[in-house]
Amino acid sequence: MFVPEVIDNVKVGALIRALLKERNMTQEALANQLDISKSAVSQNLAGKSSFDLQNLIKIAELFNLSLEELLSQKTNQDRDVISEYERLTRKGLEALDKATPANLRIDEPDLYGKVLIEYVIDYQKTDMFKYLFDAGVSLYRSDHHHTRTVLLKIITFMLEKNLDGVEKTIFDYTKEQGAFDIEDGTQKERVFRLLNKEKHAGTVMRLMRETVMKETMVWSVFKQRVPLKVLTTEAWLEVIARYHLERVLAGFLEVHSDAIYHVRLIDIFRKHSFLKGLYQYIDTIEPFQKGDDRLKLLKAQERLKAIVPLNDAALFEKYLRKGYVEDYNDLLVFLIEGAYDMMIPIAFKQGIGHINYRKVLRVAVEYNRLDLLQQHAKPCRPAELNYLLAHAAADAYELMIFLIHQGAVFDFRNHNVETYRKVNSLMKHLLDKEGVSNL
Predict the structure, then answer these.
(1) Residue 214, pLDDT score
(2) Is the pLDDT higher at 113 or at 81?
(3) Average pLDDT for the chain
(4) CA pair distance 116, 104, nearest whole angstrom
(5) Are 311 and 342 in contact (CB under 8 A)?
(6) Mean per-residue pLDDT, 39-53
(7) Contact in structure between 3 and 60 (CB atoms under 8 Å)
(8) 121, 91 contact by CB (below 8 A)
(9) In the chain, where the domains are located
(10) Residue 229: beta bridge partners?
């Protein structure tokens, strides 16, 4: 990559201003392309500061220049030979007025390997683009080595300009590539962030719903039509989560409302820290009833536990309120063992009527969680209190005293070898503290 030792900010800024003027592009539009403020663009164009290298690369690509041409102030106009396509583009739409669209032959690459529509996009000639696109003229050849590049340029331009019909080009890309898979990460993010705009909500839903047919040859003899989706369900979830696309997610949940499409959703959203998406999902779906078959399909218990380490109590409570749980006892054991103290009271509250206190509080006893016994032992019957006392550690003195105050006794139905040691240990503790009266 060519980068001069010293960049003349004033000259580079002047060149970029000239290119903007030539293509009827505003400084604000450039700022949006670079995702920086308009004031930063203004400062850089005035030569008072410099664009960083990544933005210089983006600017060069935007104006169809190499980085070397941009930094050395050499534009396409400095070339010895200017393509006829470029001459035509500079003249504008009026240059096409006399031509019948059906007679236009503009899909053959020029000496620079580009087709007319690329120059139209480079020069931001929206009126020319609409004329050619709406006329159904062949804009590129499918057998050309950079067809994918041309298609992506068309898709990006149409999304940026909010032009109708972009899904047709996305379907063409899908047939060309087998899926709407964009290898370049920067370009991929740019396209899907554009699709996330409210204007394109309908387009996104059509892309999710529709299937395109691709013709392939079998043994070079038979033609076969193969159905293709723009993206698989999981691939949609991946891009939604990676770029935090809330509007695209809204479309996904409307198109794919059946739980079978949501099996991997929580895992993928967690992987990409898409917390808003986890809220949006649970707020959108219908509540689950106890025993709902969808819970098993979704492996709801496993995925609910996966949400817990996010330490978002409000999110956790939303999932419980929607019935996104299979077994409160298993959940509470998991929370106690993991010391997820923010979530424990929520689970106890939401699980009323579904909790086996003997099972859950035994784990609390094993972890010496006196606080949980104090809060939740009230529903326990005497036999259950005796059972809990039998499982207390020999040195869990405060916990044993609490249970005894609640009416627990060392019931020999729960007798084991440890019982004598436990009683002796507790008595010694009380005597050492002169605390016999505590009983």
Answers:
(1) 81
(2) 113
(3) 88
(4) 11
(5) yes
(6) 86
(7) no
(8) no
(9) 357-439
(10) 211
